[in-house]
């Protein structure tokens, strides 16, 4: 009888329950006529091992022989074919957990916490632009501090803020991978920071106009264009440019403008809707802007959507001014401290800042609306060149 290739494909299909040798350690174990399994018996390092090669008839006789030949070759090379197969499966499994896949999964799990469900892309963009092009196809378990250093070194000093964001997002991805049960080095980002060294980049604040110079600039915004009116309302209210640019008529109720929570800066759960008191000067600007409104938005762009932040900034650039639109929040804050003597919590609330710890906020049920209205009325008098005494505010 032949010592190998004893079975035939046709004969294997008709065999009943039992164990049948094909030779050279390959066996067909039949549980019943219609199905069974292939088993290879090998001796590795003096130990007898049995290695499954798949179910019959899903794995044909020819395939079983091919798998058996590959396993015997590993034995001849001094390797354990069972352990080698396990290692190969682990490698294949790791390739299903590339950084790009984990990053997308981490992003999806956090969308509900992000402003506008993360649609603006600000959370994911540092990863997408500076991490994933180089490390996206690397198994996350393989990423170490040297990989991270080499990835961020080109922007570590030139674009420090962006590099910090990218490093922070990567750290979140590693923690997400660990929660999924993957073996990762959670300390790799901090080790990379040590390798990168302290950034030479100096953080510069957005240039702000001194509050005493604001009236002259406000008076120059007089041609009734969308950009001029937007800047006027930005100055009068102290809000950020994004909610102002997306101001919709439905957000205004009488002399109160309510900015939805998701339109405020930061996480969706960081604050509730924010009420902005509208003094007569602000209401007059809004009434004038309604003549330009499109689809309910008071400050539309020329073609579609609303004006961009750059529209207002370019206006100031063309006048060769150092200050920028966002800087008017600083102008207002300085005026509140230097000229109005406003209580800290009221002044900070005017800028939409979260004041106090979570316990303090839980017990404070006021947003200082009327106190802020009085201060903004005084601010409007200042920016329009009117005079008046400083309003004394009582802490709520």
Automatic annotation (TrEMBL):
**Cross-referenced InterPro entries:** DNA_brk_join_enz, Integrase-like_cat_sf, Integrase_catalytic, Integrase_DNA-bd_sf, Integrase_DNA_bind_dom, Integrase_recombinase_N, Phage_int_M, Phage_Integrase
Boundaries of every Tyr recombinase domain copy: 204-376
Question: Which Gene3D superfamilies does the record match to this protein?
Answer: 1.10.150.130, Integrase, DNA-binding domain, Intergrase catalytic core
**Alphabetical list of SUPFAM superfamilies matching this protein:** DNA breaking-rejoining enzymes
Keywords, comma-separated and alphabetical: DNA integration, DNA recombination, DNA-binding
Alphabetized CDD domains for the sequence:
INT_P4_C (cd00801)
What Gene Ontology molecular function terms does this protein carry? Answer: DNA binding
Set out the biological process GO terms recorded for this chain's protein: DNA integration; DNA recombination
Tree of life domain? Bacteria
The family assignment reads: Belongs to the 'phage' integrase family.
Stated name of the protein: Site-specific integrase
